[in-house]
Specification:
Helices cover about 60% and strands about 0% of the residues. With about 375 residues, the protein is mainly α.
Length: about 375
């Protein structure tokens, strides 16, 4: 006779996590297509040090990847998959995500001389591979905390104290966290010269998703793993909500305190940025968990976010490839000037809104609504694209 206390708890889909994923991908599409220079400040990234709501979108998605690893792994193990099968699937999925990222960067011309190998999907692939295999190997929470501490403190030591070859020590021979003269950018210039987000002759030679900054980004995913482990415990739902909220406050406090020494910087994915961004991600998850799982508010308002969240990678790919295609289709304007389809659409619609901020926001919302259509069709047909 089976001992009920030894029977694994069934793995159910966490609707609140799907809602957070959907909100994140929708806002990611909006800020990546924010309507241009007239857009409001919060719809743009901080130029260097500092933080705007836009800077929180990408780390929130990486955080969600970490949470999802816990639930997806446990669900597949419960269905009889072996660890070897899951490890192979993790590697395959990471490779596919990385290649899709190169497609996003290079479409439609795929010019090899300056093809960018770093990118958003590439960073997600690296983080997913690292934490996915780590979780398969060891499910204990304390090992994740230890790895997180090593990643964040180790990155700070590298950026703050390791001399930059040919330049000197940060804070003594060159300003600490200079935009171009820092260890992160130096490594990228030597690993992938002329294949960066900003490459010569541009004076800002760097990449916001560079190699060394993958280390703290993995820390972001590890915090997601810890949140997933917490939500998988047998504690009361109200206790889990409180735990997420408490973790959010602690993470925010530690991050803002550390930022006094190690500034918040999304481009370099600083350790303080990891903690502050994770704090806001935890707060969003706590709010969604409270509303959906604790209060049972599952109808109506969740639908849009579930549609986006059910095919998040497909939505992102469509939102990145569509502008690249439209930018390369030109039409003749009323004034006889040749312009691309996006400029033509903007000029004939939302540009008539007097306030440039509202005009840019209207474009952003319109573009996101267009991207909603294909994922809504997939959702209705119960097609969920997996990589």
């Amino acid at each position: 006779m089976t001992n009920p206390s030894l029977t694994p708890a069934p793995v159910r889909r966490l609707l609140s996590l799907d809602v957070v994923r959907g909100i994140t991908i929708a806002f990611m599409i909006m800020v990546n297509n924010n309507g241009g220079p007239g857009s409001w400040r919060f719809m743009n990234h901080a130029q260097w040090n500092g933080l705007t709501p836009t800077d929180l979108v990408f780390p929130t998605f990486v955080f969600v990847v970490g949470v999802s690893v816990v639930f997806a792994t446990e669900a597949r193990l419960a269905r009889g998959a072996t660890r070897a099968e899951l490890a192979r699937h993790t590697v395959q999925r990471a490779v596919i995500l990385f290649l899709l990222g190169i497609v996003v960067n290079s479409f439609p011309f795929f010019a090899l001389p300056h093809m960018r190998f770093y990118g958003v999907l590439q960073r997600i692939a690296v983080c997913y591979l690292a934490v996915g295999l780590f979780y398969l190997w060891d499910k204990r929470a304390w090992t994740k905390v230890a790895a997180l501490a090593v990643a964040l403190i180790g990155y700070w030591i590298l950026v703050r104290w390791v001399p930059i070859p040919g330049v000197g020590v940060p804070g003594r021979d060159v300003p600490f966290m200079d935009q171009t003269q820092n260890l992160v950018s130096w490594i990228d210039r030597h690993v992938c010269p002329y294949h960066l987000y900003l490459f010569p002759p541009d004076h800002n030679v760097r990449d916001p998703e560079g190699l060394l900054s993958d280390l703290p980004a993995i820390g972001t995913a590890l915090i997601g793993i810890l949140a997933g482990l917490w939500l998988r415990t047998g504690k009361m739902i109200a206790t889990k909500t409180a735990g997420l909220a408490g973790a959010a406050l602690v993470s925010l406090a530690l991050g803002y305190l550390w930022s006094l020494e190690f500034p918040l910087n999304k481009n370099m994915w600083t350790s303080s940025f990891v903690l502050v961004a994770a704090g806001y991600s935890l707060a969003l998850l706590a709010l969604a968990y409270w509303a959906v799982e604790q209060k049972g508010w599952r109808k109506g308002w969740t639908w849009v976010w579930l549609v986006f969240g059910s095919n998040a990678i497909a939505a992102y790919m469509f939102s990145e490839l569509l502008p690249s295609a439209l930018y390369n289709v030109t039409v003749t304007s009323d004034a006889g000037k040749r312009e691309n389809l996006i400029a033509w659409f903007f000029g004939h619609t939302v540009a008539h809104i007097p306030d440039p901020g509202w005009a840019a926001f209207a474009y952003s919302v319109t573009f996101t609504a267009v991207c909603f259509i294909p994922v809504w069709i997939l959702y209705r047909k119960k097609i969920f694209l997996k990589v």
